[in-house]
Model the fold of this input.
Amino acid sequence: MIVVRVIGYIFLVLAVAAAGYEAWQAVANGGWKMVALGELWFKLDAQSLSVSQAGIQRYVAPWLWEPVITTILLWPGWAVFGVPGLLLVWTGRRRRRAGGGHRR
Done:
């Protein structure tokens, strides 16, 4: 379960970074604007976004890119990473035994 928690914490770090970028943009531009995951990805590496689109449409399934992935890319970056991160950390948490001891 440690691997699940580590992946969850990585997602949470990405969510905090996305939220920090959004806050930084709000201060720099004088107003808050949601930053979508697709916009973040485009600013980080536009070529990989284009290659991913072409690869998924050509080799996986054309329908997967247009309604599914484009919808996710329009969501806020902090939410796309934050929600799964919280779920992974929560599911990977250590559970206490009924007798009060820790599992080993």
In short: DSSP finds four helices and no strands in the chain. The chain has a mean pLDDT of 92. The chain has two domains: 1-33+78-95, 36-75.
